[in-house]
C-alpha cells in the first residue's frame, strides 16, 4: 500500500471524482458527506493507526447505499490510499457499492441490506460498556431506512435501557415514501432519546449536536439535507 | 435434567465463570435465567420479543469482543431472524452461539408456528458453522463449554427426548457404537433413542453423531464396510445427503435420508405421534432401515 496522506474538506469533491469518474455529484450522492466529514474530522477518536484499538470510537454506516462520500472521507483521512479509489466495484477493488468490513480498514460493519446497523450498534455499544471501554458508537441511517422495523426494535430497547454511549444520526432527505408525520425525531424522543434536529450541511451545528449527549440516554441527531431529487 | 434445563444451567455457569460470555434472550426462557440475570444484569439481557434485535445484538457484542449466546425457539432464532444470522454474524465474519429450542416438533400441540425442521438445512447455506445436536444433557454441557471457549459460529439445537446414555467427545467426532457388514446407520442426537431398538439384531454399523457440522467423514469412511448409508436426522430428511455424497464421492454407494418428511402436516398431537407421522418411531425405522440395507 502506498503512503497515505490526509487532506481537507475541500479535497472531497476531487476524491469522489476519483471514485466515480465524474466531476459533479448530485444531492443523493453527497447527502451524508458533511455529517461523515465532521465525524471523522472533529468527533470520532479513530485514526488509521488505531483501527484495531479496542478503545477506538466506532462509526457504523448502516445506510450502505451510496458510500462514495464515506470512501472519500476515509481517503481524505488516510484510511485509504488515493490509488485505491479507481475502479469502484470492479473485481479487484476493495470498494463496492456497499462497504465490506473485511476489505476496507476502518470500516466497522458491512452494510447494504437496510436496518441492520442500528440493532448491531446497540450490541456494540453494550459490549463496550461491559468491557469497561469508554468509547462511543455512532450509527448513520437514512430516513427511508428507518422504514425497516428492526430499527424500531433497537430504538425502543436502547431508549429503555438508557444506552448513553450510542448515537444514531439520521440523514433526512425526505426519501421515505410514506414519511414520518411530525418528524422522524419524535420516534426517538418518545422512547427517551436525547434528540437534536439540525441542518445536515452546517458543520458547526453537526459538531455541536454530536458533542451534546446525555449521561443516561442515547442520542439521536436528525440531520436535514435537501430532498432527494 | 432435560436438555433445555441443562442449557440454562450450563449457560448460567458460563456467565459466572467467563467475563466474555453474554446471554441475549427475546423473552423466551427469561424466567429460567432470572437468577443469572440478577447476578450479572449487564451480561444476561432480555430484549423483549425482538428476535431481529437479539441476533443483531449478538453480532454487535461479538464485534465488541464478547462471546454472545443468543437463544429462543429454533423457529425464531434461526428462521424469523434469518437475514440477521446471514448478515450480522456470517457476513461480518464474527462468531456467536445460537441456541434453538423445541427441535422439529417438541411441542407438536403448538403446531407449525413453533416448529423448525428446516433450521439445519438453512444453516447449511452458510459456511463455517458448527452444528451440535446433543442427545443427552452431558453432551450439551460439554458442547456449550467448548463453544464458549472459542470464537466460532455455533448452532446448538435443543430438541427431542434425551437418550439414556451420553457419548461426549472432545473433537466433535462420532462414536462407533457397533460394527456390522450390511451398511452404516448414523443416528443424529436424540434420534438414537428410537434408532437403537430399531436396528436391534441387524448386522449393521451404528454411528452416533451429537455434532453434524463439521460432518465426520473420517469416521464414516474408516468404519465403512459396505457403502450403504442411512442417516437418521431429527430435522428435514436428507439434510446431510450432500455431505454423505461428498464423503463417498469416489465410491459407488447408496444412501437413504430419514428425518422429518412433510414439514407442515397441519396436525397437532404429541411428540410420539409425530415420530410415527414421519417414520421416526422404532417400528417404522426398523422397516425403513432393513428394507434399504438388507433387501
Automatic annotation (TrEMBL), chain A:
Gene Ontology molecular functions: magnesium ion binding
The organism's place on the tree of life at top rank: Bacteria
Stored SUPFAM superfamilies: Thiamin diphosphate-binding fold (THDP-binding)
Domain named Transketolase N-terminal: residues: 25-213
Pfam families with a match to the protein in the record: Transketolase_N
PANTHER family: TRANSKETOLASE, TRANSKETOLASE N-TERMINAL SECTION-RELATED
UniProt protein name: Transketolase
Protein source organism: Microlunatus endophyticus
TrEMBL record, chain B:
Domain of life: Bacteria
UniProt-listed Pfam families: Transket_pyr (PF02779), Transketolase_C (PF02780)
GO MF term (any one): magnesium ion binding
Domain Transketolase-like pyrimidine-binding: 1-165
CDD domains: TPP_PYR_DXS_TK_like
Cross-referenced SMART domains: Transket_pyr
Alphabetized InterPro entries for the sequence: PDH/Transketolase, THDP-binding, Transketo_C/PFOR_II, Transketolase-like_Pyr-bd, Transketolase_C
Annotated SUPFAM superfamilies: Thiamin diphosphate-binding fold (THDP-binding) (SSF52518), TK C-terminal domain-like (SSF52922)
Name of the molecule in the record: Transketolase
Native source species: Microlunatus endophyticus
Amino acid at each position: 500500500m502506498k503512503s497515505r496522506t490526509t487532506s481537507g474538506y475541500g479535497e472531497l469533491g476531487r476524491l469522489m471524482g476519483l471514485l466515480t469518474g465524474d466531476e459533479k455529484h448530485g444531492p443523493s450522492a453527497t447527502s451524508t458527506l458533511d455529517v461523515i466529514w465532521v465525524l471523522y474530522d472533529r468527533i470520532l477518536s479513530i485514526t488509521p493507526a488505531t483501527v484495531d484499538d479496542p478503545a477506538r470510537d466506532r462509526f457504523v454506516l448502516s445506510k450502505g447505499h451510496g458510500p462514495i462520500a464515506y470512501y472519500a472521507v476515509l481517503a481524505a483521512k488516510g484510511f485509504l490510499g488515493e490509488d485505491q479509489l479507481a475502479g469502484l466495484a470492479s473485481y479487484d477493488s476493495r470498494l463496492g457499492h456497499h462497504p465490506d468490513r473485511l476489505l476496507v480498514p476502518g470500516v466497522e460493519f458491512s452494510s447494504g441490506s437496510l436496518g441492520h446497523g442500528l440493532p448491531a450498534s446497540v450490541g456494540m455499544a453494550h459490549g463496550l460498556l461491559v468491557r469497561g471501554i469508554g468509547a462511543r458508537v455512532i450509527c448513520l441511517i437514512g430516513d427511508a431506512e428507518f422504514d425497516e422495523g428492526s430499527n424500531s426494535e433497537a430504538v425502543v430497547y436502547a431508549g429503555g435501557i438508557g444506552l448513553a454511549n450510542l448515537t444514531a444520526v439520521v440523514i433526512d432527505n425526505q426519501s421515505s415514501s410514506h414519511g414520518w408525520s411530525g418528524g422522524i425525531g419524535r420516534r426517538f424522543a418518545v422512547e427517551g432519546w436525547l434528540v437534536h434536529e439540525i441542518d445536515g450541511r452546517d458543520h458547526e451545528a453537526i459538531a455541536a449536536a454530536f458533542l451534546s449527549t446525555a449521561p443516561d440516554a442515547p442520542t439521536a441527531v436528525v440531520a436535514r439535507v435537501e430532498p432527494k431529487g | 435434567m432435560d436438555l433445555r434445563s441443562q442449557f440454562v444451567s450450563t449457560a448460567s455457569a458460563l456467565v459466572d465463570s467467563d467475563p466474555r460470555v453474554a446471554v441475549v434472550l427475546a423473552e423466551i426462557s427469561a424466567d429460567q435465567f432470572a437468577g443469572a440475570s440478577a447476578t450479572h444484569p449487564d451480561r444476561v439481557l432480555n430484549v423483549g420479543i425482538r428476535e431481529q434485535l437479539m441476533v443483531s445484538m449478538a453480532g454487535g457484542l461479538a464485534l465488541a469482543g464478547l462471546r454472545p449466546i443468543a437463544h429462543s425457539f429454533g423457529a425464531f432464532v434461526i428462521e424469523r431472524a434469518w437475514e440477521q444470522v446471514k448478515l450480522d454474524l456470517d457476513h461480518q465474519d464474527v462468531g456467536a452461539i445460537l441456541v434453538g429450542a423445541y427441535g422439529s416438533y417438541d411441542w407438536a400441540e403448538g403446531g407449525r408456528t413453533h416448529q423448525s425442521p428446516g433450521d439445519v438445512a438453512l444453516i447449511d447455506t452458510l459456511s463455517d458453522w458448527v452444528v451440535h445436536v446433543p442427545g443427552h444433557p452431558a453432551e450439551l454441557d460439554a458442547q456449550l463449554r467448548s463453544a464458549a471457549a472459542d470464537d466460532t459460529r455455533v448452532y446448538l439445537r435443543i430438541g427431542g427426548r434425551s437418550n439414556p446414555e451420553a457419548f461426549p467427545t472432545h473433537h466433535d467426532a462420532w462414536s462407533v457404537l457397533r460394527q456390522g457388514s450390511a451398511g452404516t446407520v448414523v443416528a443424529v442426537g436424540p434420534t438414537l433413542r428410537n434408532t437403537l431398538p430399531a436396528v436391534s439384531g441387524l448386522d449393521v454399523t451404528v454411528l452416533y453423531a451429537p455434532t453434524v457440522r463439521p460432518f465426520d467423514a473420517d469416521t464414516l469412511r474408516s468404519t465403512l464396510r459396505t457403502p450403504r448409508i442411512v442417516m437418521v436426522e431429527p430435522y428435514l430428511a436428507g439434510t446431510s445427503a450432500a455431505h454423505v455424497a461428498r464423503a463417498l464421492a469416489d465410491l459407488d454407494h447408496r444412501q437413504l435420508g430419514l428425518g422429518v418428511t412433510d414439514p407442515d402436516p397441519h396436525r397437532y398431537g404429541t411428540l410420539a405421534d409425530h415420530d410415527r407421522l414421519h417414520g421416526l418411531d422404532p417400528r417404522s425405522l426398523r422397516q425403513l432401515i432393513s428394507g434399504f440395507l438388507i433387501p
